[in-house]
Structure formats: structure tokens, C-alpha cells
Amino acid sequence: VIRYNNNQYWAATETGLVQIYNKAFQSFSYKDLPNIWTIIEDDKKDIYFGSYEGGLYKFDKINSTFSKVKTGVNYFAGSAKDDENRLYFAKSYSLEIKEGDEYKNIWEKTTFSVYYDSIRDRIIFGTFDGVGIFSDPDSIKYIGPEEGMHQCGYIQTVGMDKEGYYWAGSYTGVNRIDPVTYKTNSYTLENGKLNSKGIFCSFLDDSGNFWLGGDNGLMYYDYSRDSIILIESQLLNTRVKSMIDFDDKKLLLGTKEGLYIFDTYLYLNDNKIKLYYFNSSNGYTGIDPGFTGMYKDSKGYIWICSSTSVDRLNPRKIILKDQQPDILITKFNEKRIPFEHSKLILKNKYNDANSIIKFEAIGFEHPLNTKYQYRLNKSPWSEWQNEDQVILKDLSKGNYTFEVWAGPTDAPLESEKIDKLMFTINLPFYRSSWFLPFVFGLTALLIILTGFYYYSQRKEHKMYLKQLKEARYLRSQLLLSELNPHFIFNVLSTIQNKILFEEKELASEYVVKLSKLMRNFLNASHRANLMSSGKPDYEMQLSKEIELLKGFIEFEQIKSNYHFDYHIDIDKDIEPGYIMLPPMLIQPFVENSIKHGLLMSDKKGNLWIKIEKNENDLVINIEDDGIGIAESMKIHKKYNKTHKSLGSKIVMERIELLNKFGYQISIDILDRKPNGTIIKIIIKDEL
Fold this sequence. Notes:
By secondary structure, the chain is α+β, with helices and mostly antiparallel strands. A five-stranded mixed sheet has the order 41-43-44-46-45, with helices on one face. Strands 4-31-30-29 form a four-stranded antiparallel sheet, with no helix packed on it. Strands 5-6-7-8 form a four-stranded antiparallel sheet, with no helix packed on it. Helix 2 runs antiparallel to helix 3, helix 2 (about 435-500) packs parallel to helix 4 and helix 3 (about 505-525) runs antiparallel to helix 4 (about 540-560). The chain is elongated and about 165 Å long.
């Protein structure tokens, strides 16, 4: 026989280990008291037990037996006694009043809960969707949804706080009711005034604190802030279904996990949570205590209803001691380890990065659902878990210290309640923690170096292309510089002839025109630099090019004694002032048309220059009715003339270079019927 520290005994027998509880709890079987939902004592010290479907029972104090005093009645979880020793019972179809040996039903509807206001001599009872209040059963004040009650299925609990306000709680919230005006204030999860979906029990202690039981634990009402405060506990975070005073500093609470004693004094004065639990491990064998199913009789015994029994608790025999269980690590990778293992360093199998550690709570007392917290190498503690093992995966090579303790508990962590295990993980170098970062780092470095290499190569290639472009540009400028003297030479030849033939006034006029031409040309040809688009920005306006052409053609007319006429036609959709093109692009072809076509003809001819658009392309047609290409070639062959126009040659080479800069210029030279030549210049995407 072993005696445990709460006056419980364990005895070894032939059929197994037997636990002998102390005498704090006395259990009455379901056979004697079936399905009891409510308990009440009258002034004669007779205790009555209301059963759902079983009727009303009375306790014989002398013989400690029970007798049925009424049958065929479904009693709910609510009863009360007034100052006249009348008993009130909530029933499935009415509120029942027992006065002496007589029973009377009022409120012929389902009633779930009852409370007696001894200050105002009133009964408050809960129904499906509201509460009834009366001093005289013939005059009941009803407060339902229309009067401000929250939407509910039925009122599970009614009570009163120290300010005399009534409380009515249900599965969906709770209301506080003014006892004078009957104005009501709702507290629900939906309106943000309640940290719980419902309220199932309430209690006013001797200090005036009003306590409420909700879905996720115990709460209390803060009078100064008109708010309901949840007590956030690791141990008590389930539905509180019933409560009563254990003594003047503690509450006894009923939950589906068993009973809890809560130290209200310690919490209200030191803000510390201290809970003691009672279940099948330490004396209380009831399962799922009922709603508002607790009652303290005149002798101080606390009666507790549950789904399996009625139990009587003697608070004087309860021993409140530390209940936190000890913990013991029992297995490492499915192998048992010594009981004393604090100094051992266990080794995992080589190349195995996973470990399984099993443990168990030690002690005769433990919560109904024991939970565990663990940590590795002083990392933060895990959340509470129900599993009594931990699987550690993908550990790195090295030494580890595993720690675990049992709970849940609100008590501070104590080192003696912790068990620890040291072990080593041994892995090949390629599974070491540094290996992957090293590989990633090396790969990143190679990528950076490769990128830098390609960037340098690309930069050098761009530099090469830029230099090549500049070289081509300089070549184009050189050709342009060769073209300019050629044009000027032709013009000066004309002026020289006029001077020789003593046409001085006309020669002077030509000099003025030449100066104007030269000024326009120099303004266009000396602006050369590189644009961001890559095209040379030495272009000139089409209008300026036309002005230059007119000047040149007029010089040629004078020189040839007006042997030809010229016509310049510009499409009406073209704005010459807004179109840019390389300078001196058209003039050499006009010169060839005049010298090798018109001037070699015996009759007066015509020169047509037509500028039009084809979609986004600029098209320049130079047309003459001279001798034509074939006849011109015969003359040159006859007179052994192999000379080709220097200006035409220069401009063709220049066009080739301009195309390498990004222009798209094409030249077509065609025969004109019946005689003459057509030169078509197309500059793409210029419009």
C-alpha cells in the first residue's frame, strides 16, 4: 500500500492496482439518483433533487437514502428558495412552485433557470427568449427581444450582481437588466462586448465580484468599465458550465474536463492564476458536470450534478497542493533510455537527421487532458500539444539539448519540473548545415562573375559598335565635305562665264544668290553631332533643301540661257518645314538630270521634281524629258567619255553609309517614255 500526498492510497492486489480515494468526495449512483439536473434545500434542511424524466427526489438525512416524492416531471437545471420557504423549479412546460406539500404551476411554458432576489423579494426565471420577473405570481413582467434581449435559444442562467442588476445568459450572449426601469444592455460576441459565444452560469461572491462562465473559460464583470473580462488561462480554457463558492476566497467550477478550484483572492490582488483540478485521477469520478448543477447546503457540503452521478464534496477534506505533474523522457528513437539520463549524451545513427523522443507525465494527479511543451537548444517553448512524443526532422550536424515539461499550467516554469536529454547528430559533410549555404554562395559567386564577364564583353562590343558608327559618321561627313566644293565649283563656273562676257550686274546678282545659298548650306551642314537615337543630327528641313535646289536650278537655267524649265510639286499633305532629311541628298541627282539629260538635248526641255508620301514613306521623283539614259551612254561612248559625275558618285556612297546609320534610303533610276529619265528616291518612315 502506498499513500500519496493528497491522502489517497494505492494498493497492490491479486487482480491489479487499486486506487483508494480520500473522503472528500462521496458519490451517489445513477441508479439512486438518475439524471439529476438541479438541487435545492428548504428551511427544514430537506434536500430535493430534480431529475429530467425521473421526477423529484428527497434526501433522508438520517439514513442517507433517497425517496421519490413526485413522478412524471422533467426538471431542468434551475431551482430557488424564497424567504417564505417556497421552492421554485424550472420544468419543461412550466415554472413549478412547491409550498409545503402542495405544488402549483405558473407560466405554462418551458422554463430553464430560476433565481431569487432576496432584496426585492422577486423571482427571476429564464425561458426560451427572455426572462420573467415577479413578486406576485399573478403579475409577471416579461422581458424579451422586443424589450432589448439578445437573440437566443433559451436563457440558461439568471443571477444578480452587487448593484442589484439582473443577468440573463444563453448560448448566444448575456443581458444586464435594470431592476427598476427594466432597461437592458446586451453583451454578445457579435457586438464586441463578449469574449465568448455564450454564458452558461454566473455567481456573486461575498466580496461583490460577479463571475460568469463562458465557452472558453471564466470571466468577471468590471463594474467601473461596464465590461466582461476573460481570465486567460492555459489550464482553464474550456466551457464553464456551473460554479459556486468553495470558500470565501475560491470558486468551484464545473467543466466537461472535471472540477476546478480557482483562487479568486490571489487573482484579484496579485493578478496570478492558481487553479486546482479534480477528476478521476484524484477523487472526482463524475463525467461532464451539468449546467448550473451545483448547490451548497446548510452544512457546507457542495452537491454536484453530472451525467453519470451526483457527488457530494466536503470542502474541509480537500487538500490543495501543487498538482503539476513531473515529466520523464522514456525513449530515444524507439529505444528505452535509463531513468537517470541527465548526464548522458546519446548519439543518433550516422547520416540520420531525424530523432523521435517519447516522454510521459509522472504522478497520480494530472489534468484530464495532459499536454506538453518542449524546446530545443534553449529556443522558445512550443505550443501545448497532446502528443506524448516529438519527431524532430532535418536536424543539422551538432549537439542538441531537448527539454520538455507537462501541463497545461499557469504556474511559473520550475527547473525541477523539466526533463532534458542531450544527443548528437552526425552527418556527412554534404549534409552539414554549412554545406548548402556554401554551395548556394559559390553558385551565386559564379553567376555574378559570369554575369560580370558577359557584361564586360557586351560593354566592349557596344564600345566597338559606337566607334564603328562614329567612323562611318566621319566618313559620311567627309563625303559631304567633298560634295560641297563640287557644288560650289559648278556655281562659280557659271558666275565666271558671266564675268567673262561682261555681264557684271548679272554676275553680281549671282554672287548675292550664291552667298544666300552658301549661308543656308553651311547652317545645315555644320550642325553635325550624334543623337540618342543613333542618327546624325545634321539633317536639314525639306523646305531648306527645296530652297537650295531652286537656287542651283536657277543658276543652271542662267548658265544654259534658259534651255529648260523646272517644276516643283509638293503634296498638299506634306509640311516641308516639319520634315528633316540629310542635306544635299537631292541636288546631285537634279544636277545629273540637267547636265546629262536636258542640256544634251537640242530642244528646250522640262525638269519635274515631285515630292509626295506613300503611307509613312517620303517619295521624291526627279523626272526630265532629256535624251535619256541609253542615248547619254552612246554619246559618252562615242566621244570616249568615261567620266562619271563626281557628285552622283559621292552621294551614292554617302547614301550607303547613311543606311548603316539607320536610315532606309533607296534609289531607282528608270527610263522615261518616250524619252528622258526618272529618278525615284524613297526615304522610309519619314512621315
